[in-house]
């Protein structure tokens, strides 16, 4: 049964529960999920709730409908490997989506403590901060927060950041962001600010990755605090 005493809509709770079942292998790729009456009985919800949750999963690419036969599992997700550096654009395009980006913020800010420590600079030293909303087929799936050493990467203050950052650094400046010094993975729920940025409801699950990236010469490139939409991402370790 789903939880009634919560601000999270019932259809979203059901969607999350069904997605967990899909990702656990309960419903393998190509298999048929239970029909609407059975889902209503299992979860104690109305047909309207079931239809909305299933429609969302169809829209997101996890399920597909066959006319007159039912709803089936497509298993369409974006996979990332934790131990290798893979840019957003490459990983999304490999999954069969079109990658686009919207720059939300770009400014000089005092370095947060973890950023200052990684860059080997004094706390409060200015760094370049960028925040981008990254999308797959027009749907927001990742919120990217990057911090760059200002002296070395001041050119990013005027560059077009609507495309792949890693392609830009490599092809135009000969900088290859290839060495993750440390990568930390955790789970978070969207607060009101993130929910507004990512066009989701408060409480939507996201993977959070804190990463510290160096180039081919082992020099720092950026610190990243990235949030990946949990319902569409899987991570391989």
Task: Pick out its properties.
single chain, 237 residues, alpha+beta, Arc Repressor Mutant, subunit A, Chorismate lyase, 2 domains, 8 helices, 30% helix
Q: End-to-end span in angstroms?
A: 32 Å
What's the overall average pLDDT, rounded?
Answer: 87
Helix share, percent: 25-40%
Please compute the radius of gyration using only Cα atoms: 20 Å
Helix-strand pattern:
HHHEEEHEHEEHHEHEEE
Please list the strands of the largest sheet in the order they lie side by side.
4-5-6-9-8-7
Contiguous helical run count: 8
What is the third-level CATH name, the topology of the largest domain? Chorismate lyase
Low-pLDDT parts are none
Shape-level CATH architecture of the largest domain: 3-Layer(aba) Sandwich
Summarize the structure in words.
The chain is built from 8 helices and 10 strands. It is of the alpha+beta class and 237 residues long. The chain folds into 2 domains: 64 residues, Arc Repressor Mutant, subunit A (Orthogonal Bundle); 159 residues, Chorismate lyase, CATH 3.40.1410.10. The strands form 3 sheets. It has a 6-stranded antiparallel sheet with strand order 4-5-6-9-8-7. A two-stranded antiparallel sheet has the order 1-2. A two-stranded parallel sheet has the order 3-10. The radius of gyration is 20 Å and the shape is elongated. The mean pLDDT is 87.
């Amino acid at each position: 049964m789903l939880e009634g005493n919560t601000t999270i809509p019932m259809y979203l709770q059901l969607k999350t529960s069904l997605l967990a079942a899909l990702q656990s292998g309960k419903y393998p790729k190509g298999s048929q999920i239970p029909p609407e009456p059975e889902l209503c009985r299992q979860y104690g919800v109305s047909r309207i709730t079931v239809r909305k949750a299933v429609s969302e999963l169809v829209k997101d690419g996890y399920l597909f409908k066959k006319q007159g036969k039912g709803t089936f599992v497509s298993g369409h997700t974006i996979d990332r490997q934790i131990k290798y550096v893979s840019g957003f654009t490459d990983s999304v395009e490999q999954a069969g989506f079109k990658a686009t980006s919207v720059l939300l913020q770009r400014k000089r800010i005092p370095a947060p403590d973890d950023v200052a420590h990684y860059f080997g600079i004094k706390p409060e030293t200015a760094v370049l901060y960028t925040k981008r909303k990254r999308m797959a087929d027009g749907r927001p799936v990742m919120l990217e927060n990057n911090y760059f050493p200002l002296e070395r990467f001041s050119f990013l203050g005027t560059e077009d950041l609507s495309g792949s950052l890693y392609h830009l650094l490599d092809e135009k400046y000969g900088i290859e962001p290839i060495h993750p010094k440390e990568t930390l993975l955790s789970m978070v729920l969207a607060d009101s600010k993130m929910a507004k940025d990512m066009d989701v409801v408060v409480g939507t699950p996201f993977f959070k990755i804190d990463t510290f990236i160096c180039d081919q010469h082992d020099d720092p490139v950026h610190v990243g605090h990235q949030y990946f939409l949990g319902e569409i991402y899987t991570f391989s370790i």
